[in-house]
Specification:
This protein is of the alpha+beta class. It contains eight helices and six strands; from the N terminus they run ααβαβαββαβαβαα. Helix 2 (29-40) packs antiparallel against helix 5 (122-139) and helix 3 (59-68) packs antiparallel against helix 6 (152-159). It starts with 8 loop residues before the first helix and ends in a 7-residue tail after the last helix.
């Protein structure tokens, strides 16, 4: 059935923003199931559903995330979130204490391939799935962060990812910390449609 179902999509879209500081309250299992179900219903090319999502929510697995998201110190990331700065100021850790992390991948053997160019649909499929998951999480009162800054090889090794699984992104999910304040400049800044959308011709 098509048509309004009681949720204002535009309001939900504007409500979503990147959360970089999380409460340690666990995400309820019922909510985890709902956000994964939202991803299950996302569109994929020829409905191949090549997404493969690894759910990480134990202290041991979250420590692995922290390990493969640690890099040399970079001011611009510290400016985004002080929580990424280590005590010795020698490293940044692109992990904000989320109690739930989803490693979103696609299976190279399962995704559709363009018959002429051979281009795989997997990355696009995984991105669509991740977007559906984020919006469902927001509708449930959860915060999210899309993370693509991680060491893929370290992640593959520590998470024992199959060779055919291609990591695309991670989603940090959880309740925002009580003292969390969104970065207003980044959260609400959007270019006007005249800069991003073109009718009939470019320019």
């Amino acid at each position: 059935m098509f048509g309004p179902q009681g949720t204002d999509f535009m309001a939900l879209s504007k409500q979503r923003h990147t959360v970089r500081k999380y409460s340690q309250k666990p995400v309820e299992q019922e909510k985890v199931k709902k956000i994964l179900e939202a991803g299950r219903w996302a569109p994929t090319a020829v409905n191949a559903q090549p997404q493969r999502i690894l759910v990480l929510n134990t202290p041991e697995e979250l420590q692995k995330v922290k390990d493969f998201c640690t890099f040399g110190w970079k001011k611009k990331y510290v400016d985004l979130a002080e929580e990424s700065d280590t005590v010795d100021h020698k490293h940044i850790v692109i992990y904000y204490g989320a109690p739930l992390v989803l490693m979103v991948c696609y299976d190279k053997k399962a995704c559709w391939k363009h018959p002429e160019s051979g281009t795989e649909s997997g990355q696009t499929d995984a991105v669509i799935v991740a977007t559906h998951i984020m919006l469902e999480a927001v509708s449930l009162g959860l915060g999210t962060a899309w993370i693509s800054y991680f060491d893929e090889q370290k992640a593959r090794k520590s998470l024992h990812l199959p060779d055919d699984w291609q990591p695309v992104c991670m989603l940090y999910i959880g309740y925002p910390a009580d003292d969390y304040q969104p970065n207003q400049k980044l959260s609400i800044r959007r270019k006007p449609l005249t800069e991003t959308c073109f009718f009939d011709k470019v320019g």
